[in-house]
Write a structure and sequence with these properties.
Length: 384
């Protein structure tokens, strides 16, 4: 692993940054406040190949790894356009299908992931299960030559703009045991419905409760085989954490950029406020924390792309934890640097607070990450 990104990766970052700057934070916030979607940006990013950089070349993608997709996500976030569905659709769903899907599923879905013409949401969280995936009650039962799904999921992102949702459910394997299984459910399937959740976060992507009431699916809606659901699930969760880390890094960079620009220009006592150590040192500390977190994110992506799922699991969890903490520090210090202006709409800093605060909770809480590290990295007894 090199600590210097390849020339191709740096060129990708530059190109994506230029695209993000062409839209910018004002575009993103206007869309969010108007309850509209960032369709123009998504479509252009897809047309330019940025959403499909990790899709195999034989299916129209760039043939790169999750590190390339993470770079795209980070640069768009740093430009003020943190696209939450990037964490879900091309990262989780496309990765799972590429690694575990049938040939027909790959041919059907991957080319459209590659060009951005399809969006797929991902549904695992349930009201009574939370972080305990062993308590999932959404079930799939065989019915003739197909499946019937029943259950409920909550806090599912972007369902209203998705073509399909990949549901984590439980089905009987060939030995009669209940195990996780993944199903692709079209959003227009009879028996599928959604209920919006009101959130205090400025984002074009909305959250939903999803209801499955005797949803009938063909047999090939099952991703992969009947006995491989657990491995397939974890193949998608590491990219999720890596992408969340990349998004947090981008938002942290955005906040620090705003703070330092303001600190260089704002004068109260005859000199720019950035010259005062009371503001300069906290910004410098936030910068250090952010760069350390970014390094862990790059390590996690490298391990995953090298096929080391175990090592990537540890690093991805650590990266997500570290980046969430660093991004919160960056945004909080940016608000403090701006003073009262930090909470005005004009400066666009205060609205970042809700987004980064969410990162301590989702896609996996900081407490569950600490449980993971305590058990798997330190060898301590399992606490839950």
């Amino acid at each position: 692993m090199s600590f210097v990104e390849t020339e191709e990766r740096r060129a990708l970052r530059t190109a994506v940054a230029e695209l993000g700057a062409a839209y910018g934070a004002s575009y993103y916030v206007e869309k969010a406040r108007a309850a509209q979607k960032t369709d123009e940006l998504w479509s252009e990013a897809g047309r330019l190949g940025y959403l499909g950089v990790n899709v195999p070349e034989e299916y129209g993608g760039g043939g790169g790894g999750i590190g390339d997709l993470a770079a795209v996500c980070e640069e768009l976030a740093a430009a003020g356009c943190p696209l939450l569905l990037m964490v879900v659709s091309p990262a989780i769903c496309a990765t799972i299908i590429a690694r575990s899907g049938t040939d027909d599923q790959k041919k059907r879905w991957l080319p459209r992931f590659a060009d951005g013409s399809v969006k797929m949401a991902f549904a695992i969280t349930e009201p009574d299960a939370g972080s305990n995936s062993h308590r999932i009650t959404t079930t799939a039962r065989r019915d003739g030559d197909g499946w019937v799904l029943n259950g409920q999921k909550t806090f599912i992102s972007g369902v209203d703009e998705a073509d399909a949702v990949m549901f984590v459910s439980r089905s009987q394997d060939q030995k009669g045991n209940l195990r996780p299984s993944l199903f692709i459910v079209p959003t227009d399937a009879p028996g599928f419905s959604r209920t919006p959740i009101d959130m205090e976060i400025v984002s074009p992507e909305k959250q939903f409760i999803c209801h499955l009431d005797d949803v009938r699916l063909p047999y090939d809606a099952l991703v992969g085989d009947e006995d491989g659901g657990l491995l397939q699930l974890f193949a998608g969760l590491n990219p999720e954490r890596i992408m969340a880390s990349a998004m947090g890094a981008g938002i942290g960079r955005l906040a620090l950029g705003k703070a330092t620009a303001y600190a260089k220009e704002r004068q109260v006592f005859k000199t720019p406020i950035g010259a005062h150590q009371g503001l300069a040192h906290p910004l410098a500390a936030a910068k250090i924390e952010l760069e350390l977190a970014r390094l862990m994110g790059q390590k996690a992506a490298w391990l995953y792309d090298e096929g080391d799922d175990t090592g990537a699991g540890e690093a991805a969890n650590m990266a997500k934890y570290a980046t969430a903490e660093a991004a919160i520090h960056c945004v909080d210090q940016a608000i403090q640097t701006h003073g009262g202006n930090g909470l005005t709409t004009e400066y666009g800093v205060g609205m970042l607070a809700g987004v980064v605060r969410l990162m301590r909770i989702a896609p996996v809480s900081r407490e569950m990450i600490l449980n993971y590290v305590a058990q798997h990295s330190l060898g301590l007894p399992k606490s839950y």
